[in-house]
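Possible regression after last week's pipeline update?

I re-ran a chain I had predicted before the update to compare outputs. Posting the input and the new output here so someone can diff against the archived version. Not blocking, just want to make sure nothing changed silently.
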Amino acid sequence: MALSIPVTWTDAHRLHALESAVWVGVSIDADELPERADRIRAALEDAGAPVVEAQAHDDDALLSVHDAGLVDFLSTAWKDWDAAGLPHDPGQPNVVGYIFPTPSLLAGIEPRVPAALSARTGTWCFDTMTAVGEGTWEAARAAVDTALTAADLVLAGVPAAYACCRPPGHHVTRSAFGGSCYLNNAAIAAQYLREHGVARVALLDIDAHHGNGAQAIFWTSDEVLTASVHVDPAEGWFPHFLGFADESGPSNLNVPLAPESGDDAWLAGVDRLVDAAREHGSDALVVALGVDAAAADPNSPLAVTEAGFREAGHRLGALGLPTVLVQEGGYVFETLGTLVGATLGGLDETR
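New output (post-update):
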């Protein structure tokens, strides 16, 4: 069956093309590359999905979710870095922090805005692996427009729309970016739906890693349910400090899984997310769609199959809600498009 779910898209994602990142103090090859989105689009087009160009939206949607200081920093960081000569001395081509204002460092004192850009980066970023390059801001901002265009389609009556967002966004909190993410596309889409007449929204995250950004942003919200099924951070997996089952807010659910969990355990977790959305009385659904829970993906120890992703699509689609799907992780280029297509196909089959 040909896919009928529209795919929102922007070529601007290719402007974010970092070749390296810093992890445990050493340079590593980047894996969040333009080829990811290009592979997904190609596979979905081959399956018949219509492609819709992302439309520009104003910054109000960003600022309803993110601190203005974070947005200002990201929009100017690389230009300021380049103007300061840091690509030449010390020779770091991208914006990377080196000191972070942790609560233990500050000891209750309100932090100042550092004069040094290399230190100021640590105010807004919680890791060293999420560098800002020359085109990062433009790509991240366009990814938001991609998610919002999918939301517009759903608000206009399309049953489901898929945003082929890159860079991803689900680790970004209100005022801090990291985890290879810069702006929280899924959270922005959820809040946008709320501001355009949807009373209650479920943001369900099936990426292999905890959706800590949405949890933080909507922690005190009754109107937006956040629920995530992911590899257990207690087993040593990102984001390490968050994603435990006992983290509960007014509308939050975490379902951590043991490493090597396959279809049965993962789908049982997806069922818990779906049940939570029903109990919440959600009127619309946003899915943070990562496919890095796949068996061969090097970025997680889970073992979900293509059939598992298709069945997840069935179970999410069974909610019968207007649905915006937003791309997150997934790093095996050869199977990335197939797995996204399987998930969308499963959801499409329920409509």
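Follow-up from reviewer: compared with the archived run. The mean pLDDT is 96. Marking as no regression found.
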